[in-house]
Amino acid sequence: MQQDLFTKCVKFTTAREVMAAGVYPYFHKSQSEQGPETIVEGKKRVVICSNNYLGLASHPKVKEASIDAIKKFGTSPTGSRFLNGTFELHEIAEKKFARFVGKESAILFTTGHHSNLGAISTLVGKGDVVITDKLDHASIIDGCRLALGEMVRFRHNDMGDLERQLSRHKDKGKLIVVDGVFSMEGDIANLPKIVELARTYGARIMVDDAHSVGVLGENGRGTGEHFGLEAAVDVVMATASKSFASIGGFIASREEVIHYIKHFARSLIFTASLPPAQVAAIIASIDLIEKEPERRKKLWENTHKMKEGFEDLGFDTGTSNSPIIPITVGEDMKAFQMWRMLFDEGVFASPVITPAVPEGHAIIRTSFMATHTDEHLEFVLDSFEKVGKQLGIIPGGSIRRKKETQKRWKFTFSRERMTAATKRWIKNLWWFNR
Q: Is residue 28 among the annotated active site residues?
């Protein structure tokens, strides 16, 4: 019997069931600039799910730089970096980033995802092995899958398990790839021990500093600077969609390594290059990071306040030691329910469920910005206290509230409202699959 390719599409009704249940947390559209506040579906909400750590996405100088770039270079390069899509702005950004992170050279990809795909799949060839933390970002895993070499994984931040994997592949070319700051857990890679093991076993090190650049280190240069090990990191990757207030991704390393990647990375050669406005925003953002260190200082003040505030309320924040602070909820369905209750209170957060986290350890992922005010943060803590007590996640008692006029959110939810197919879909959300 002939099978219609679209049959699976017709049968996929589970997302609609989640929507009908009132707890679908994805693709909610913002209707204004996304700073510490934004308008989502007609209501102003405090944003605690953004990676705009330094608040530069709405900085006047960044906006002005983008507008000026459009006036001079137009809206699109209309081709790949390899052919007609390299403007002088791209090379200015690359030189500025390479200098910023202390490397000889850098190459700018169109997205951070493309950066990891291109660098890893190009550097790891037949007979090589790439060794990754089990909680590395999905783009790292995708890059490993495209590589012709072997991929092996070690338990999260478990240096004994990393050494076991290194010892099993003594005679191969080896690349260790780790997140600097892990995007869900908010903890930092044990770079000192990774460097020690890499030297012992002759491995190279690549650090994905997507959530580290602009955040860690005395000058915001990332994980290497944070530990005083910048020279020991062979390859640095960083996205521009976080502290750099744009989109795109950098790979920085020795000149000959970047030269090789430029000529073999398929995700660079076969896609259009980053538009001038986005490149100009990156250049302006790097300048501001260097000129306004007080932004990073404020970010860490806010981070410490929220970490302490959540823990004082009784929430489990795991091993986080960065502006990413996960709030342990428990069951997947309860995370969806908590997200919805917070959303209706006026807090825009993100639920994270299995398999991105272990079964029974679903979280509400929060992340904070330099531009959050004390009023924003107090409002968030009040909302979490209210909802956490209603759901029994933290001890009950009196509920702190600053605005008695806020509408009390009432919602009941049960697993029975979900079909088995819906539960399976939730557990296999592709964007959480590591």
A: no
Helix (H, G, I), strand (E, B) or coil at 255: helix
Looking at domain 58-291, does it have CATH number 3.40.120.10? no
Instruction: Say what the pTM is.
Output: 0.89
Candidates 63, 113, 137, 211; catalytic one:
211
The rounded distance, in Å, linking the Cα atoms of 209 and 179 is 6
Assigned CATH topology for domain 10-47+294-432:
Aspartate Aminotransferase, domain 1 (3.90.1150)
Q: How many beta carbons lie within 10 A of that of residue 85, not counting itself? A: 18
242 catalytic? Reply is yes
Whether the link from the prior residue into 355 is cis, omega within 30° of 0, is yes
Q: Which residue has the tokens 């030297």?
A: 199
Is 137 annotated as catalytic?
A: no
Give the active site residue among 174, 242, 307, 389: 242
Tell me: the pLDDT tens digits for 197-242?
A: 999 999 999 999 999 999 999 999 999 999 999 999 999 999 999 9
Catalytic one among 115, 121, 183, 267? 183
